Amino acid sequence: MARVRAVADDEKLSKRHSILDATFRLFMDNTNELPSMSAIAKASGLAKGTLYLYFRAKEEIFLALLEESFGRMLDGVQGVLAVRQESTAGFIGAFLGGYLGVLRGEPSFLRLASMTNSVLEQNLDPEIAVKFKKQLAVRLQDIGSMVETSLPHLGKGEGAKLLLHVYAITIGLWQVLDCSKKIRSMLDDEIFSVLLADYFEELPIVLGQTLKGKLAG
Amino acid sequence: MARVRAVADDEKLSKRHSILDATFRLFMDNTNELPSMSAIAKASGLAKGTLYLYFRAKEEIFLALLEESFGRMLDGVQGVLAVRQESTAGFIGAFLGGYLGVLRGEPSFLRLASMTNSVLEQNLDPEIAVKFKKQLAVRLQDIGSMVETSLPHLGKGEGAKLLLHVYAITIGLWQVLDCSKKIRSMLDDEIFSVLLADYFEELPIVLGQTLKGKLAG
Amino acid sequence: MARVRAVADDEKLSKRHSILDATFRLFMDNTNELPSMSAIAKASGLAKGTLYLYFRAKEEIFLALLEESFGRMLDGVQGVLAVRQESTAGFIGAFLGGYLGVLRGEPSFLRLASMTNSVLEQNLDPEIAVKFKKQLAVRLQDIGSMVETSLPHLGKGEGAKLLLHVYAITIGLWQVLDCSKKIRSMLDDEIFSVLLADYFEELPIVLGQTLKGKLAG
Amino acid sequence: MARVRAVADDEKLSKRHSILDATFRLFMDNTNELPSMSAIAKASGLAKGTLYLYFRAKEEIFLALLEESFGRMLDGVQGVLAVRQESTAGFIGAFLGGYLGVLRGEPSFLRLASMTNSVLEQNLDPEIAVKFKKQLAVRLQDIGSMVETSLPHLGKGEGAKLLLHVYAITIGLWQVLDCSKKIRSMLDDEIFSVLLADYFEELPIVLGQTLKGKLAG
DNA sequence: AATGAATGAGCATTCATTCAT
DNA sequence: CATGAATGAATGCTCATTCAT
User: Fold this and answer.
1) Are both B118 and B21 inside the same structural domain?
2) Within this chain, do residues A33 and A96 fall inside the same structural domain, yes or no?
3) D104 shares a domain with D14
4) CATH (domain of B48)
5) CA distances from A174 to A161, A167, A202, C53 (A)
């Protein structure tokens, strides 16, 4: 009996996963828009109606995707911070190296995270949105306290704030430098160079400067 | 309806402006989406067809709004930087104070600027998108060179880069802290405090730290 | 509305047919234009969106109508030619009689066929248009070879060509004599008599003359 | 005074002509649809409102174009028939040669004439449509009587009827063989050959056969 | 007479969601 | 549980025509 339930639960999870997977693939392939439910149904091999058995609305699918991506990202950061650093300089170096590594390993995070706000304000039950924010807040505080362990001169809550600033810079810079290939190919004048900088080269520079300014004397 | 014929150029400009105005109001009122042409028509007291006499497509209306807002913003920054600073510390202080003032005076800039990417990738002639990017790039370089005047140890192009980073932080932090009133009212737990920081208090802190880190020895 | 679900294939076919039927009625009632999707939806008692479950575009509805009508027409002609004739004169007589009979039994063919070109050049995937032409070409060759059986002095391919000429005359004469009732009632002068000839009387005359000229020594 | 009027009339005629000219160019350039009034205004260098001073509706512009083209065509045929032929065979040969020459010299006639019916049934004052038909009928009778002069065994009215049949075949065959270049390029199978015959080679064959059949014994 | 700004009904098509099967 | 047929409001946009200037 329990066995049967377990199997059924597995099936449920696997269907849920295939929906998320299909949605993710469609989102990455195309433009910065949520794929349509028809497209998701087709790509996941399920019927349209079935999608509504697993998610109450299109935006909830996307939010689940967002949660997964944030989760993996935060897991990575947590891993990076698990190694306690003795000096501020050591912390900055280790954090930057680790963080960039995690981000490069989760390249879709940037595109997904950039959609967060517009998704949260759309067709979503506010309760659901709040639940998402709470998860995020809890983990920020959690991982923030690990930061505070390495940087004891930080006050309570300042670790989380530091992470929030890092996150803000991460997506802010991405939005500023992101550009479709089509348009990028038309930006062949010297004047555009500042807008064409490589994101993964630029990000550690800005983050490094901010952390340095933040943690210095 | 306002069946007033805009014959002279200034009348046309004013009608154009009333379209932009209506679009702006609708955008600010509602969610993070471009209002529909029907809604814009109704809000501006014009027929739908009339909108297309002034703009070739919905996205061009929004781009015009974007250009105006960026223009005012950059004018403000240019004004701030017109006063040459002798020291790095003086520069940071003067810039931060001036910049925050300009930003507070243009509060819609943040929501508009956050839409830039999604608008530029939508139903827009790529030429138009490039033209917009060029305007921006030119002014960034231009104002960047003013930065370089105050901070002579910066190399050529580093002023523009500094401004770009400031811009990235400006919108990144905004997206991280932005939250609809409805949802904000539901975030009454202590755990949410890091997500509820006041944007205009937080921004100068992060910007200050970054500039300090960037310009320090 | 007819919220009846067409689940089985035959139910779907019948729904598809009811769309074609409604389209046909609207086309026959009104002017020489494809009816609008709104009108078709209303006339078929279905929602607009439902139409797109059965046809990918408005023009495909009409093309399906065209295919059906051509199909029935060609079936009829094939039936007529199934009886082999021994003499040229016998062939002409039998063919004319049979052809006119088929055409009278399919009176809408003339109006539909007259639209073929304009429909094929509209909003239609060229592949689809070619597919339609191919069907037509195949059947013309097919039935043409039956003609060649009755008329052994014709070379290979001349049977199809003969049918094409018959078809050209069929629709050419129809267009020349077709006239809305409203206008027809205003043509009460003797001078108009040549334009008011009865199509079904005139057609066998012209076709007979052409076939006679074509097949004579 | 009369002078001034004459000048004014000239101007009127020239404007009217430039409208027709622009419409014609646009129609020939594009697909088988009447160009829009905006396009006509732009192409003729006149304001949209001005078009309505010269024509009451879009279709009247097109009808005027049709009248001109029919007029030139019929003038040409009249010229061909002005030379009286003594024998039936002589008539057929001379007529075919002359007619094909006229048609080749007026290549737009085919596309225009094919639109006649759909234009006449659209947004047109029936009176206007009747007027057009009358002009045509009168000239058909007129030129038909010239045919009767060369072919004395024809009864009264049979000359006009012969011309009507010629016209029917002319446009019927054109519609059957007409095909956009795009689609034509996709018809590279042998099976399509019957649909790809050259119109100006095929037409005299069919016309010759019909006339032979019509005028023989 | 000429203009061209303004209109608004009309268009084909999409798509999140529902619910009978 | 799962399906997918059906919905219909909503979308961006066109265009013949009008009429104040």
Assistant:
1) no
2) no
3) no
4) 1.10.10
5) 20, 11, 10, 41
| Structural domain for A3, as ranges | 1-55
Q: CATH number, domain at C135?
A: 1.10.357.10
Q: Least CB-CB distance to C133: which of D137, D187, D212?
A: D187
Are C101 and C148 within one domain? yes
D9-41 pLDDT, tens digit per residue, is 787 888 999 999 999 999 998 778 899 999 999
Whether D49 and D154 map to the same domain: the answer is no
Whether chain D lies against chain C with 3 or more Cβ pairs closer than 8 A is yes
Q: Cβ distance B134 to B119 under 8 Å?
A: no
Residue D169: the pLDDT is 98
Q: How far is Cα B52 from Cα D27, in angstroms, rounded to an integer?
A: 25
How far is residue A70's CA from residue A109's CA, in Å, rounded to a whole number?
7
Nearest CA in chain A to B194: A161
Say yes or no: B140 contacts chain A, CB-CB below 8 A. yes
pLDDT along chain A (217 residues), means of 10: 56 90 93 92 97 96 95 96 92 96 94 92 89 95 95 94 98 95 93 96 97 88
Contact C212/D208, CB-based, under 8 Å?
no
Of B36, B55, B74, the one marking the end of a domain is B55
* Pair (A49, A67) in one structural domain: no
Q: What is the pLDDT of residues D99-117, one digit of tens each?
A: 999 999 998 999 999 999 9
Q: Tell whether A96 and A185 lie within a shared domain.
A: yes
B8 near A CB under 8 A? no
**Structural domain count, chain D:** 2
Cα distances (angstroms) measured from residue D79 to each of B66, D82, D109, D164:
67, 5, 17, 17
Q: CB of B196 within 8 Å of any CB in chain A? A: no
Q: What is the mean pLDDT of residues D183-188?
A: 94
Q: Which residue is nearest to nucleotide E15 (CA to C1')?
A: A36
With contact defined as 3+ CB pairs under 8 Å, the chains touching A are B
What integer best gives the mean pLDDT of chain C? 94
CA of A10 to C1' of E16 (A): 28
Cβ atoms C71, C112 nearer than 8 A: no
Q: How close D42 gets to chain C, by Cα (Å)?
A: 24
Q: Which CATH number is D3's domain given? A: 1.10.10.60
| Residue D62 to residues B63, D47, D65, D68, Cα–Cα distance (Å) | 40, 18, 5, 10
Collapsing DSSP states into helix, strand and coil, what is residue D157?
coil
User: Which of the listed residues A55, A76, A98 is the one where a domain comes to its end?
Assistant: A55
**Between A and B, how many CB-CB pairs are < 8 A?**
171
Q: Distance between CA atoms of B9 and D168, rounded to whole angstroms?
A: 55
Q: Are C73 and C174 contained in the same domain?
A: yes
Q: Which of D198, D208, D214, D210 is nearest to D96 (CA)?
A: D208
pLDDT digits (tens, 9 = 90+) for A111-169: 999 999 988 988 889 999 999 999 999 999 999 999 999 999 999 999 999 999 999 99
Are C and A close enough to touch, i.e. 3+ CB pairs under 8 angstroms? Answer: no
